[in-house]
Amino acid sequence: MTEDFMALARQAERNSTAAQDPDYPTFHVAPPVGRLNDPNGLIVDGDTYHAFYQYTPHHPRRLVYWGHATSPDLVNWTQHAPAIAPDCHQDANGAYSGTAIATPDGVELWYTGNYKDPVTDEREATQCVVTTPDLKVFTKITSPIIERQPDGYTAHFRDPQVWQDTDDLDNPAGSYRMLLGVQRDNLTGAALLYRSHDLRNWVCEGEMTFPDAHGAFDNFGYMWECPNLVRLRDESTGEIKDVLIFCPQGIDPDREGFDNIFACVYIVGNLVGAELRGADGSFEEVDRGFEFYAPQVYARRDAQDQAVSWNDVDGDPKLLIGWAGNADEDAQPSIESGGWVHCLTSPRALALVGGRLVQRPFLPGLPLEGASPSSLLVEAEAGQVAGLEGSRAFRFAADVAYEDGAALVVDLGEASGVRLRLEAGRMVVDRSGSRYPHGGVREVTLSGTESGRFELIVDHSLVEVFVGGGSRVFTFRAFVQGAEGQPSGPRLSADGRVRLDEVEVARLD
Ligand code: FRU
């Protein structure tokens, strides 16, 4: 008899104690039970934000669903029944990552069906679809739309981003494109493009190429996961650019950073056909934190149920959410304390400033408000921030000015556990005293302009640090020590004297 996968998941959720865990986030998406990984199918529908995600309710049993949460304000999230269960041949070993696209009939969720032969362990990767008229009722098409990878590639062929391309001059109504992460037969990674006029018949256009990159991306890791293409207007030059965000597995550049098991990077250019022109071979990490991977950009459907064009760069902000986790790092304290592991990041409005990707926290449900006093002189003695005493779920932002080599020190946790140290050209994050010391101490070099505005978002065991107004981001999990394992609001001190101006705070607890 086949199992009733939806009933299995609902049962595990009913028995869950995750939400009572003091480490469980309150304004970020975390799994109702079990394990969460990549964000999937992110779409704003009118005024509702949907976040689907890779969801394994019976962790460590690898039955991978798409979980589903919605929010009116990106802060208050409601969990729903999973939207996709691994209940047929094509996805028996996981309904893997993918995206949402608004269509004339509703929304389609595109995902990778992962099947592994139980005898040979051979993988079959297919591109599959679930349709929904209203984002409430989900109907799976139980035969794959793209049945296998093209010649020249292994079965590491996954994570479709599907969007409507109004650049397609041959077809004034626009045609659809699909971007996939692949592995070539020679075991190097790449991104593959497909095109379709009806979302059902797809033609492979070939790999995305980088004609101006001098071969920099020809042998760039052994597999590219979760490629995402986003169009932005550069705020300093006014030029329209296409930013490719992806996760090349197995790169080890000889420079600072790239300390996680797999990296997530971006490249800037202009997509013409399958060529990402102007990408000169340079790439940067999207986030420097201990935990960050597989981010995705929101698609949109407006109040009249029309798709908002992917090509539109001057409308609503393009919002990015990532996975605050990494592959193979599930041994976190929350498994013991609440039977859950990992969560998503805050949404970040993306901007391009002089070719650099900038991420600004976007939390309409938790707006920052001017603190009183709005300026502070921080010196040796540690002090609480007015308004955030004892808080476990808050935002804190300020313009920071360091007097001659001074450093701002931010402690989180009652008996400490996590310490941030910010100087004019450097940030040091130390979680070696926490219940999850993995990675210990990490240093990030900051450029001159990156010191300025600092924002800290803390949600129980999740911390996100934005420096230089979001030009550098550091996401990590902080299982701090202290009373019942709970952080107690930020405590600030300084080596030397540090001035904080335009202090703003917001709290949720
Ligand atoms: C990235 C990833 C994707 C895959 C999914 C499986 O974290 O490995 O490539 O679709 O997770 O859960």
Description:
With 509 residues, this protein is mainly β. Helix content is 3%, strand content 47%. The chain has two helices and 36 strands. The strands form seven sheets. Strands 24, 25, 27, 32, 33, 34 and 36 form a seven-stranded antiparallel sheet that branches. The longest helix is centred in the N-terminal third of the chain and has 10 residues, at 5-14. It binds beta-D-fructofuranose.
Which features does this protein show?
509 residues, mainly beta, seven-stranded antiparallel beta sheet, six-stranded mixed beta sheet, 2 helices, 36 strands, 47% strand, globular, binds beta-D-fructofuranose
Please sum up the structure shown.
The chain has helices spanning 5-14, 333-338; strands at 34-45, 48-56, 65-71, 78-84, 95-103, 106-116, 123-132, 139-140, 153-165, 175-184, 189-196, 203-207, 223-233, 240-249, 265-272, 275-277, 284-285, 293-297, 299-301, 319-323, 340-341, 348-353, 356-361, 369-370, 376-378, 383-384, 393-402, 407-412, 418-423, 426-430, 441-445, 453-459, 462-467, 472-477, 491-495, 498-507.
